[in-house]
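User: Predict the structure for this protein chain, please.
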Amino acid sequence: MSDFKDKVVFITGGSRGIGRACAVAFAKRGATVVINYAGNEAAATETVKLIGEAGGKGKAVRFDVANPEECNKAVEETVKELGRLDVLVNNAGVAIDGLIMRFADADYQKTLDINLKGAFNLIRAVSRTMMKQRAGVIINMTSIVGEMGNGGQAAYAASKAGLIGLTKAMAKELAPRNIRVCAVSPGFIETDMTTHIPEEARKMMLQVTPLARLGRAEEVAAATVFLASNDASYITGEVLKVNGGMYM
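Assistant: Here is the predicted structure, written as structure tokens:
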């Protein structure tokens, strides 16, 4: 893996789960990591501590990814303080499940605002800096549900499928300035989002997963770091599946 020393990595939703695992993985390679969080200050503080223990420098910034002004301000302040921004990982997300006949408009809009609009806001915010640098990598965290669909997750599937389209469009638009854009598509990973899954549903998932287990956040982080590294310098517009073979 390439060294991320002197590189600045910005990760949304970095206080726990996959976001935290990504923060630690980049820190192990010497990166300065700025994490965004929505409200759990204690979890964000813990992630910053883990970044330091892993050998990197860390900072936590609280803002709403669905708010374009707050996104712009956070990116501008990061670049002003650190001088650059090399990698953006759009990881912030929410999953609100329910049958479509009873799904509330507010819940649908919230899902799109955080999962899809949030990524759009951050990409737009970092694009000017990366274009001036003539270098940068953007990784969008999509989902197996955005690729194959899932009953009871219409809003989540729509938002994550939208991220795939956004990834491919941005990969073509930003490539002339040497900015690569890819997506990582996790399957079912052991995180806070999957702890509520009933045991029967968990067994069914394992039965249709060739590797017969749930993934780990660290495995998703490893794929993310790879795509952001120079080892993936000729890869853009791709969706890297990390799903144990559940969807090929």
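The chain is about 45% helix and 15% strand.
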